[in-house]
Write a structure and sequence with these properties.
two-stranded antiparallel sheet; 8 helices; 66% helix
């Protein structure tokens, strides 16, 4: 896996993000029809989008710090990096756990157990919440990250 996607992979990633956010009912059938593995979804989509809120929170904490009740705390670089690494690992692991839950609950909702389809749903439905993480860059805009709740709509579309 490359740290920087190729231009083709980048345009495919952006097209997928745009499709899932703006036209989810048209995008879900495309996603369902694509052959994929858990590894290909992780390496081509999840690792990049899960990094968005982590990097924004890292930069925001180093530049602005954390404020509450008139008190501001600025973490050390090592502390902020440690927090970012833990957040990133939890994001990557959380998507897998979410997919396991979806797969386990599928029969209760009239679906069939299929770990790839469950992982597709977990990964692509999280798109809005990952992108809403941009608002953690500036602490005063953090409340706007509520737009990430659009992921719940994507989950049920």
């Amino acid at each position: 896996m490359d740290l920087v996607p190729s231009p083709e992979a980048r345009s495919a990633l952006l097209a997928r993000v745009q499709g899932i956010l703006l036209k989810p009912k048209a995008e879900w059938p495309k996603i369902a029809a694509e052959p994929a593995t858990i590894g290909s979804i992780y390496s081509g989509y999840v690792v990049y989008l899960a990094a968005v809120p982590v990097l924004c929170a890292l930069i925001g904490s180093l530049v602005f710090g954390y404020g509450f009740a008139g008190v501001t705390y600025r973490p050390s670089i090592a502390g902020a990096l440690t927090t970012a690494v833990v957040q990133y690992a939890l994001q990557l692991g959380g998507i897998y756990v979410f997919a396991l839950i979806i797969d386990g609950l599928a029969p209760r909702f009239g679906g069939q157990k299929d770990n790839i389809s469950a992982f597709k749903l977990a990964a692509y439905a999280a798109t809005a919440s990952w992108l809403a993480g941009v608002f953690t860059l500036v602490p005063g805009l953090g409340f706007i990250s509520i737009l990430g709740l659009y992921s719940l709509y994507l989950l049920y579309t």
